[in-house]
Amino acid sequence: LGLLFIVTPETLIDWVGVKNAYLLMFVTALLGGLTTFNTVPYLSMLLLLASGGLNPYLLGFASATGVMTGDTLSYLVGYHGAKAIPAVFLPLFERINQLAEKYPQRFPLICFLYGALCPLSNDFITIPSGMARVSYMRVMIPLALGNLVFNIGTALFVTSIYDVLARWF
Predict the structure, then answer these.
(1) Count helices and strands in the chain by DSSP H and E runs
(2) What is the pLDDT of residue 154?
């Protein structure tokens, strides 16, 4: 016996409340940033809440802030606990480590572009940066700004698409 739940974005926002929806976005993104290689689908929550009509700028800010707060732990894992990282990831992390050492002036730009353009986990940047002892500010500020661009852009895109699709159907 299966139970099918269909929850529209508007229903979720009505149930949670607008103010709580931004907090929900922050907490979901924080959990996404805390979990290595992102098993928490914070982007799904961003898409759902944006399509429900919430302010895409506030959603983007809440999600970027949450993700970066959680990603601070990943940076600290690389900085203090590199021995705890699974061996399968070490070659990839070593390449990023070499990139940070070879191009120290360009590395903040690389972090910004990664955050702004790449939907993958930030752990691919934060852990190796911690391992390479790259300054926290040189990594996290550009990565946070990139994540802000990515999350606001995603929320704006979804809002636009949702409006267009709502007119068609």
Answers:
(1) 8, 0
(2) 94
